[in-house]
Design goal:
Elements lengths: L1 H18 L1 H5 L1 E7 L12 E9 L6 E9 L5 E8 L8 E7 L16 E7 L18 H8 L3 E7 L7 E4 L2
Antiparallel strand pairs: 1-2, 2-3, 3-6, 4-5, 4-7, 7-8
Amino acid sequence: MRRTAAVVIAVVATLALGSGVSADRRTLRARLAADNEVPIVISAAQGEFSAKIDNEGGAATITYELSYEGLEGSVTQSHIHAAQPGVNGGIMIWLCSNLASPPPGTQPCPPSPGTITGTITAANVVGIPAQAIPAGDLSDPLEAIRTGNAYVNVHSTVSPGGELRGQIK
């Protein structure tokens, strides 16, 4: 009886993990705070990022919402980076920008308090050669997000390196 139950549990777990559906249907979140930046920033600013990965129909997409408030400077840009907690990594995906020459299709960042929403596709991946992440391929960013090795940050005129940061979980 125990052996049968163990086999059933193993099969169910294998099917759930192998399909990727259950992992991709959950909501991913990041709580953005100034003290998550590396090095830390002293600011009362805060933010939230939530996202859902959709693998239905072949090509994966990420639908997201980013909200922030209380920034001490004007918002300049926001991205998803590849790196583990406490380490700075390269930009994989631009979420918004008020810079002169952002990647094509990048939406403007609203002033703080602000909220943006969007859908990320493979075309949004700018790539990081130094981290072996190719442009135009969403598989590596998805792997970084799923394993907790991606973070969102919001840059401002007061903190050009980033005023807010949160690890995606």
